[in-house]
Amino acid sequence: MMPELYYAGIALIMLGIIIIVIGMMLTILRGRGGGVEGGGVVLIGPIPIVIGTSSRVIKVMLIVTIIMMVFIIALMMLWVKLW
Hints:
The chain is α+β, with helices and mostly antiparallel strands. The chain has two domains: about 1-35; about 35-83. It is built from two helices and two strands; from the N terminus they run H-E-E-H.
């Protein structure tokens, strides 16, 4: 295993944790009583199951899922080509 990739992965995980903590702190400090919306995607094979609290969230999650699937397919094709 290449040590550069290992350290890059650890750095990205730490960056993600830091971004989440900063976002939580900003939300707490603002203290506005805004509405909360959320959503998620479960992929069973090539079939996405999209869950959301509103139609707007469902549309955003579906768009993000399509973009991620295209990106993953492109990476797999590139990997096979380089193999």
